[in-house]
Design brief:
Blueprint (H helix, E strand, L loop, with lengths): L1 E6 L4 H10 L4 E7 L2 H12 L4 E6 L5 H14 L2 E6 L10 H18 L2 H8 L2 E6 L12 H21 L4 E8 L5 H4 L11 H13 L4 E4 L1 H12 L2 H8 L7
Parallel strand pairs: 1-2, 1-4, 2-3, 4-5, 5-6, 6-7
The structure holds NADP nicotinamide-adenine-dinucleotide phosphate.
Length: 245
């Protein structure tokens, strides 16, 4: 049995990833907060002959995450771990801290308990969900961009630090993908794609052990360029981007 754990599997990209991975011979650990939506994903994965365990837990609950991950791993060693759960928004101050708790601490609560287990086995794959929004500070969403910037830099660093232990680390940086996050956006989203298409791109990238899985490419190039421009120029562009509600 191939053990795969995905956080944020109750919706959007996480749900589509679960379905993309679901097949005979796969044991899945699916994590989310909404029991009904999580169970719906599990049902769809079981229909594709995967074995599925669901766990309703908030990724900010460090002990709760560790308990589930250790228990799952003792039954079926985790080969692929996808730290996908996250929230978006435009807040600062307390709202920014709440977002960091999910998008940063939540990722650490997902990967920290599993890294030593994978190190002991000398193999494993970790995928961390960043965003093209994490390439540069964004006035439209300072906390979201910062949280995804953390994921990008930490993931890229971990990749080098863990490769000698046989662990592959990739950072996923999508543009605009249909989900409950983008359902809340009231502005035009270039190169908008379905979660199913995003999941196919992500799984193909992970199978090739890509360091950065950034897509769609025109937006990935634009984000890279924005970060490379002198600040006076990129600030001018960033000020014109629509604000997240
Ligand atoms: N959609 C995009 O355009 C886009 C672009 C770049 C990056 N991303 C990233 O992709 C990831 C998935 O988001 P999505 O777009 O698929 O949005 P989504 O449909 O809102 O899904 C978010 C998932 O994360 C889970 N989640 C959120 N907070 C959680 C918490 N505290 N504890 C446990 N689970 C939690 C949700 O679970 P419940 O619903 O059960 O609460 C849900 O399953 C996020 O990290 C997001 O930042 C999305």
């Amino acid at each position: 049995m191939k053990g795969i754990v995905i956080t944020g599997a109750s919706s959007g990209i996480g749900r589509a990833l679960a379905l993309e991975y679901a097949q005979k011979g796969v044991a899945m650990g699916l994590i989310g907060r909404d029991p009904a939506r999580l169970e719906e994903t599990a049902r769809a994965c079981r229909a594709k002959h995967a074995q599925v365990q669901t766990h309703v837990v908030d990724v900010t609950d460090r002990a709760g995450m560790e308990n589930f991950l250790m228990r799952f791993d003792s039954i079926c060693p985790i080969e692929v771990l996808v730290a996908n759960a996250g929230v978006s928004g435009g807040g600062i101050g307390a709202a920014a801290r709440a977002m960091f708790a999910i998008n940063i601490d939540g990722v650490l609560n997902t990967i920290d308990p599993v890294i030593p287990l994978m190190m002991k086995r000398g193999r494993g794959q970790i995928a961390m969900m960043g965003s093209l929004a994490g390439y540069r500070g964004l006035a439209s969403a300072p906390a979201y961009a910062a949280s995804k910037g953390f994921v990008k830099l930490y993931g890229e660093g971990l990749r080098g630090a863990l490769e000698t232990h046989g662990i592959q680390v990739s950072v996923i940086n999508p543009g605009f993908v249909k989900s409950r996050i983008t359902d809340a956006n009231d502005f035009a989203m270039p190169f908008f794609m379905t979660a199913e298409k995003a999941a196919r791109i992500i799984v193909q990238g992970l199978q090739k052990n890509r360091a950065r899985i950034s897509f769609p490419w025109p937006m990935a190039f634009g984000s890279w360029l924005l970060a490379a421009l002198p600040v006076c120029l990129s600030d001018f562009i960033v000020r014109k981007l629509p604000k997240k509600s």
